[in-house]
Amino acid sequence: MLLTVVPMTVILLNHLQIFSRVCRPNSAAQNDVLCYQFVSQFDSYVGAQLNLSVSLDDVAISIGKLKKGKAPGNDGIMAEHLLHCHPIIFYVLLKLFKAIVSHRYVPMVLILLSRY
Questions:
Q1: What does the alpha-carbon distance between residue 14 and residue 56 come to, in Å, rounded to a whole number?
Q2: Which candidate, 86, 46, 33, 29, places its Cα nearest to that of 63?
Q3: Residues 17, 68: one domain?
Q4: Which of 1, 40, 49, 78 could be bridged to 72 by S-S, CB 3.0 to 4.6 A?
Q5: CA 57 to CA 94: how far, in whole Å?
Q6: What is d(CA 91, CA 58) in angstroms, rounded to the nearest whole number?
Q7: Same domain flag for 22 and 60
Q8: What angle do CA 84, 44, 93 make, to 5 degrees?
């Protein structure tokens, strides 16, 4: 099998042409309306309604129980990273857990990290 090497600029220009043709809004006014709707609803979107009984306190308590001085996981994150980072991490992790459960989808990067 003969492989052809294509310069990156050719690939980028082809992608730009396809993207600009496919991703064009119907009109600037409609695009503004849809953009406003998306932005105004994004923060309150929770996905499918599930009875997920994990709370912010549950996440915080679980992180607080992590053992210090252990080797990092495949992602390179040590318990100390989570224990000493800004408390916003509890909220971020809770949103991640709820998204995984409600969409029934685990991001590929998390699957790959768990394999090594």
A1: 46
A2: 86
A3: no
A4: 78
A5: 10
A6: 11
A7: no
A8: 25
The answer to whether residues 48 and 102 touch, using CB atoms and an 8 Å cutoff, is: yes
Q: For 35-83, what is each residue's pLDDT tens digit?
A: 788 778 876 766 656 666 788 889 999 999 999 998 887 778 889 999 9
Instruction: Give the chain's domain count.
Output: 2
pTM above 0.70, yes or no: no
- Expressed in percent and rounded to 5, the helix, strand and coil fractions of the chain are 60, 0, 40
Question: Which residue range(s) make up the domain with 103?
Answer: 56-115
More confident residue, 5 or 113: 113
Q: Say which DSSP state 101 is in.
A: H
- Residue 46 has φ and ψ, to the nearest 5°, of -120, 0
State whether 63 and 98 are in the same domain: yes
C-alpha closest to that of 62 among 83, 85, 92: 83
HSE value, Cβ hemisphere, 13 Å, CA-based, for 100: 13
